[in-house]
Amino acid sequence: MVERIWWGTRAYCLIVGMWVRATLTYRTSFLMMAVGNLVTTLLDFAAIAIMFMHVDELGGFSLAEVAFLYGTSCTAFGLADLLLGSLSSIGSRVRDGTVDTLLVRPVPVLVQAAADRFALRRIGRMLQGLLLLGWALSGLDIDWTPVNVLLVPVMLLSGAAIFAAVYVLGGAFQFWAQDAAEVQSAFTYGGTTLLQYPPTIFAEDLLRGVTFVVPLAFVNWLPALRVLGRDDPLGLPGWVDFASPAVAVACCAVAGLAWRAGLRGYQSTGS
Amino acid sequence: MDGMDGVDGVGRMAKRERSGDCIEVEGLEKVFRVRRRTGPLRRERREVRAVDGISFTVPRGQIAGFIGPNGAGKSTTIKMLTGILTPSGGRLRVAGIEPSRDRTKLARRIGVVFGQRTTLWWDLPLRDSYALVRRIYRIPEARYRANLERCVELLDLGALLEVPVRQLSLGQRMRGDIAAALLHDPEVLYLDEPTIGLDVISKAQVREFLRVLNEERSTTVVLTTHDLTDIEQLCERVVVIDHGRLMYDGSLAGLHEVGESERTLVVDLERELPPIEGVPGARTVRTEGPRQWLAFAASASAAPIVSRIAADYPLVDLSLREPDIEAVIARMYAGR
Fold first, then answer.
1. Is residue A264 within 8 Å of residue A92, measured between CB atoms?
2. Is B265 on the interface with A (CB under 8 A)?
3. In this predicted structure, what is the pLDDT of residue B335?
4. Which of A60, A73, A268, B263 is the most exposed place for a label (fewest CB within 10 A)?
5. Do B123 and A25 touch (CB under 8 A)?
6. Please, are residues A190 and A209 in contact by the beta-carbon 8 Å criterion?
7. What predicted TM-score, i.e. pTM, was given to this entire model?
8. What's the gap in Å between the CA of B264 and the closest CA on chain A?
9. Which of B334, B291, B335, B332 lies closest to B314, judged by CA?
């Protein structure tokens, strides 16, 4: 198992390296895409900042606190998107039958599909998230107990793992429905946008949905509220704030099983 | 693992034992469930038996050609042999491995070339694709270098190694793809329509390479094709599949017998005469001036027919045409 993960990671890095080099053969195109990506994501936050020029707080949260939520959500999602974002286009490979070529190599298909068409420009989202997170942390007055210090990196990694599970689950689903990429986007891009705002501005039913059904609340809301010293609007017991890693592991396990089932159901194409 | 059997001599590839069965297939079945939209909301579920109980074995070191019309089930069969598809029923062993269960393990021991889709890196030099293959298959350095050298020599790739794949012609790319599938010393090489779309010279080059490979390394080769010249020049064994069933399995010569194929004797007489008659076992199928065409069973000897004509008619010249395999197979499909 450990060896399998080690070789899988190694193969992933090898394939990613090939894509990066292939991308860099079109240098200008790469630079324009990278800049374009950065600008669009920055505009997202600009919209929130402009809003704060007219109001002092949003759902009881200050600009720095919203920036903290934005930064954590954006970083976690950015990391998952960078590493596994290619899974959302596995549907087109299923449709034209090119999954065949992945199946005859001695590398797990999940690894190959995740590394396929690796786009270095996606690193922009994660960098921007980290930048905003740094800015938020410098402006916030947080009680830096050891627990809080630990909670921030754990939150980012668990969050990335939860989003990664969503990507794998969405990819698995595309073996049956090749056009499911849009549904998946609702949970990935839609999810990260949702998490950039304070939970207090949303209806309770929605909060329950993202806590118990699609556990996106564990990406940043629940642990972030603990770091910021706030109560969660659903009034859940305190230990829930630390449950993110466990939730992430559970999500990944479910996604892994779904992926295997999807792969088994692959029917290829004629000829 | 296979990379262990050492390099015997410079640029030579390791030779394998030429005995036993490499591929064993028994009662193989594949049923596809197809959903079809029959109305705005209604959907019809249908079962399609693409492969319907096929059994055969391929001994180590044989070149076997699979032919059959489009949609006959030959690609589906190959896909089950490579582990791409899981069989719905039957027993299947390739190099002692059950493909769908140990797919990654099998992947190390087989090479696959898809005629219509390349596995090379489009924007990078050909050499880079090979370097990735070496690391992904964990091929020992010495073995990799020896294999690459031999492939480059036989497939004439020397000038192409530093060229980005997108700049290669179809024939060059196919040769590049075949080399990529062989660097890890596979025991079995699958080729799905390897000569499709290639010009005559490229086709000849690919065939020659496969022949040498099979001779030097005893690699078992399984290929599907629509080009019957591939079969005539390469395959000692022909498997005809149609409607998911095995129609014929045996030598090329045997295929002619089963297909009741005929040879043609073309005779030039001194002058224009009525159609030749009275030659047992032969009938005149066409006349054109002093030239006449006579058909007779492919299994029969031409000698008595020739001597009979020479005795009865003013014979100037003659030639013998071998049966057209294309016609044989067409007849086979028609008579199903």
1. no
2. no
3. 61
4. A60
5. yes
6. no
7. 0.83
8. 35
9. B291
